[in-house]
Design a protein that fits this description.
This is DUF2185 domain-containing protein. It is globular and about 55 Å long. It has five helices and 13 strands. By secondary structure, it is of the alpha+beta class.
């Protein structure tokens, strides 16, 4: 893959940690993590343990370019915000996103949280949990898949948030996933325009390029 066609924002020669089993059989792919430093961790389902010998046996390092050639599905995650994980669904050929939980390093976690809070320029907190309709947390590798966009932003009476995508039919039940506010706004920047909503308010729009309209509250 030439540098001109490189799909990811990270340097193609940057090292990634990858399960050794994936080098032999990429179909074992289970999940990836893009940490707060923008480094990739690509796994067959195993996580790091406290036993360093086990870690050395289970994981190795590859240049990101080689990892993408081995697992081209990674290119669908070009816009993945740092601090997120993505579970691979081989049947649907799609990724399901989630916000990464704190690490085992409490001091580092505090520094990361402080930096995120300091950099946040919108109302509320970047660490606040947001419920999103499931398709907003999915990234398909099918180029013909419909574009993801938020149709409705709901500020519940208790102050919590719900984002609903255009693929959810009106007045029908739907499944949700939890993301941190910063990740939701990075994935869907236009949501930031209505983060000043008061509890009980609902914003809607008829199309992804239409302005938000206050429809309730």
């Amino acid at each position: 893959m030439s540098s001109e066609n490189w799909p990811l924002r990270q340097d193609p020669e940057s090292p990634v940690i990858i399960s050794r089993s994936l080098v032999e059989d990429p179909s074992n792919l289970a999940f990836v993590v893009l940490d707060d430093d923008g480094d990739w961790f690509i796994s067959d389902g195993n996580e790091f343990s406290e036993d360093m010998d086990l870690n050395r046996d289970a994981f190795g390092a590859l240049p990101l370019r080689d990892a993408v050639e081995l697992i081209p599905e990674l290119t669908a995650l070009a816009g993945l915000p740092t601090g997120m994980a993505a579970d691979w669904d081989p049947e649907r050929r799609s990724w399901l996103l989630s916000s990464v939980a704190d690490s085992d390093d409490d001091e580092e976690d505090l520094l990361v949280r402080a930096a995120r809070l300091a950099a946040w320029t919108h109302p509320g907190s970047p660490l606040e949990e947001v419920q999103v309709s499931t398709e907003l947390a999915e990234i398909s590798t099918d180029p013909s898949a419909p574009a993801r966009a938020v149709r409705q932003v709901v500020r519940e009476a208790d102050g919590s948030w719900l984002l609903v995508g255009f693929q959810v039919p009106e007045n029908e039940d739907f499944e949700v996933e939890a993301l941190e506010m910063e990740h939701a706004v990075t994935l869907y920047p236009d949501v930031a325009l209505v983060l000043s909503a008061a509890p009980g308010q609902v914003y809607d729009r008829p199309s992804a390029d239409a302005p938000w309209e206050l429809v309730e509250g």
